C-alpha cells in the first residue's frame, strides 16, 4: 500500500511539473511586454530596464524557466534574510547572499494590474469557489439521489420517463446557456417575487455595515452549477437502484416481510451509492477547479471569474497561477480518490 501511495504521489508531481512547464512556455510566447504592463503606459526606459531585471526578463528563456520553477516549488533556493518575495518578481535564485535549499511557500508572482501577490488573490477567490462548488454538489447529490430513487421505484412509468427526460435535458444544456436563462428569469424578470439578484457574490459591501455575508446570492449560481452533475447522478443512481431492486438480497428481504421503504433504506441505498460517490468525486474536482461561465455571468467572485478578468486585462501571473491551482486541485483529488479506492479494493493496488 505504501508503494502504491508513493507511486500515485510521484505520478501527480510529474503531471504537475508538466502543467507548470506547459504554462510557462505557452504564456512566454504570447505577445506583450510584462515590464510595460507592470509599470503601465507612463514609464521611462530606465524604469523598464529595472523592472525587467527584477522580473528576470533580461535572462535567457531557460534561466527564466528555472527561476519560475524555483518560485512555485515548495522546495527551492530561498534567501534567509529577505525571502523570495520582492517588489515585482521575487526570484530567490537572483539573490546572491545567504541562499539555501529549504521548504518555502510557493510564490506565484505578483499581479501586473494591482501589484498584489497572486497567492493572496487566488486564496481569496478560492473561498468563493469552494463554497459555491460544495453547495452545488450537495444540491446535486441530494436531489439527484432522491429523483433516481423515485425513478427506480416507478420504473417504466410516466414518472420514470419524465425524470429521465429532464435529466437528459440537464446533461445537454451548456453551463453558459443555463446561466444566462436562469439569471434572466429568476434574477431579472421575477426579481420582485424571488428577491434574488441578477449578479452578486458571497460577500458584499454595505455603506453602513461594511462587508456583509449575503447567502441569497449563492442560490442561483449554485443551482445552475449543479444542474449537470445532478442529471448525471439521477441516471447513475436510477440504474444502480434498479439493479438493487432486482437483486437477490432485495428479494430475500421482501420475503422476510420488510416493506419497500425498509428494503430501500436498509439495503438498496447503501449498496447503490458506489457509482454515485465516484461521480461526486469527479464532479467536485471540476467544480472546485472553477466554474468559469457560471461565476462570470453571475458576477460571483471566484477562481473562474478572476481568471477571465485576468485574461481580459492580460494579467499573465494571475492566469498562470490560476491554471496551476486548477491543475493542483485535480491532481490532489484524483490522488486521494485513488488511495481511497486502493484501501477499499486491494485489486486496485495490485493492478496499478
Name the features.
4 strands, 352 residues, two-stranded antiparallel sheet, mainly alpha, 16 helices, 5% strand, single chain
- Please state the average pLDDT score: 80
For the largest beta-sheet, the strand count, sense and barrel status come to:
2 strands, antiparallel
SSE series: HHHHEEHHHHEEHHHHHHHH
Strand content: 5-15%
Count of DSSP helices? 16
Radius of gyration: 25 Å
Distance between the termini: 11 Å
Q: Identify low-pLDDT runs.
A: 82-97
- For the biggest β-sheet, the strand order reads 1-2
Report on the structure:
This protein is mainly α and 352 residues long. The strands form two sheets. Strands 1-2 form a two-stranded antiparallel ribbon. Strand 3 and strand 4 (210-213) form a beta hairpin. It is built from 16 helices and four strands.
Summarize the topology:
Blueprint (H helix, E strand, L loop, with lengths): L1 H27 L5 H6 L5 H11 L5 H12 L2 E5 L19 E5 L14 H36 L4 H15 L2 H15 L1 H4 L8 E4 L3 E4 L5 H27 L2 H8 L4 H13 L1 H15 L3 H7 L4 H10 L3 H29 L1 H5 L2
Antiparallel strand pairs: 1-2, 3-4
Helix pairs in contact: 1-15, 5-6, 5-9, 5-12, 5-14, 5-15, 6-9, 7-9, 7-13, 9-11, 9-12, 10-11, 12-15, 13-14, 14-15
Short précis:
The protein is built from 16 helices and 4 strands. The protein has helices at 2-28, 34-39, 45-55, 61-72, 118-153, 158-172, 175-189, 191-194, 219-245, 248-255, 260-272, 274-288, 292-298, 303-312, 316-344, 346-350, and strands spanning 75-79, 99-103, 203-206, 210-213.
Amino acid at each position: 500500500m505504501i508503494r502504491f501511495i508513493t507511486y500515485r504521489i510521484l505520478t501527480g508531481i510529474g503531471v504537475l511539473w508538466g502543467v507548470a512547464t506547459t504554462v510557462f512556455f505557452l504564456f512566454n510566447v504570447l505577445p506583450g511586454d510584462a515590464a510595460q504592463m507592470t509599470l503601465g503606459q507612463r514609464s521611462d526606459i530606465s524604469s523598464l530596464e529595472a523592472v525587467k531585471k527584477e522580473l528576470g526578463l533580461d535572462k535567457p528563456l531557460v534561466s527564466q524557466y528555472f527561476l519560475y520553477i524555483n518560485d512555485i516549488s515548495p522546495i527551492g533556493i530561498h534567501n534567509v534574510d529577505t525571502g523570495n518575495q520582492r517588489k515585482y518578481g521575487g526570484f530567490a535564485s537572483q539573490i546572491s547572499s545567504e541562499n539555501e535549499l529549504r521548504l518555502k511557500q510557493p510564490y506565484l508572482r505578483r499581479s501586473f494590474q494591482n501589484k498584489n501577490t497572486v497567492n493572496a488573490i487566488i486564496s481569496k477567490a478560492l473561498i468563493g469557489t469552494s463554497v459555491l462548488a460544495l453547495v452545488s454538489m450537495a444540491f446535486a447529490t441530494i436531489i439527484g439521489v432522491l429523483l433516481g430513487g423515485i425513478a427506480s421505484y416507478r420504473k417504466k412509468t410516466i414518472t420514470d420517463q419524465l425524470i429521465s427526460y429532464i435529466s437528459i435535458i440537464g446533461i445537454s444544456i451548456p453551463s453558459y446557456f443555463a446561466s444566462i436563462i436562469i439569471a434572466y428569469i429568476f434574477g431579472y424578470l421575477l426579481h420582485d417575487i424571488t428577491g434574488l439578484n441578477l449578479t452578486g457574490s458571497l460577500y458584499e459591501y454595505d455603506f453602513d455595515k461594511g462587508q456583509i455575508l449575503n447567502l441569497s446570492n449563492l442560490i442561483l449560481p449554485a443551482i445552475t452549477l449543479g444542474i449537470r452533475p445532478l442529471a448525471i447522478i439521477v441516471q447513475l443512481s436510477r440504474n444502480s437502484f434498479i439493479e438493487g431492486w432486482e437483486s437477490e438480497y432485495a428479494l430475500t428481504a421482501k420475503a422476510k416481510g420488510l416493506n419497500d421503504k425498509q428494503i430501500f433504506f436498509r439495503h438498496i441505498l447503501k449498496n447503490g451509492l458506489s457509482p454515485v460517490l465516484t461521480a461526486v468525486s469527479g464532479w467536485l474536482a471540476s467544480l472546485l477547479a472553477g466554474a468559469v461561465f457560471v461565476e462570470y455571468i453571475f458576477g460571483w467572485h471566484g477562481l473562474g471569474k478572476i481568471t477571465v478578468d485576468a485574461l481580459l486585462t492580460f494579467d499573465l501571473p494571475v492566469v498562470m497561477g490560476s491554471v496551476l491551482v486548477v491543475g493542483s486541485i485535480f491532481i490532489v483529488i484524483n490522488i486521494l480518490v485513488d488511495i481511497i479506492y486502493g484501501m477499499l479494493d486491494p485489486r486496485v493496488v495490485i493492478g496499478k
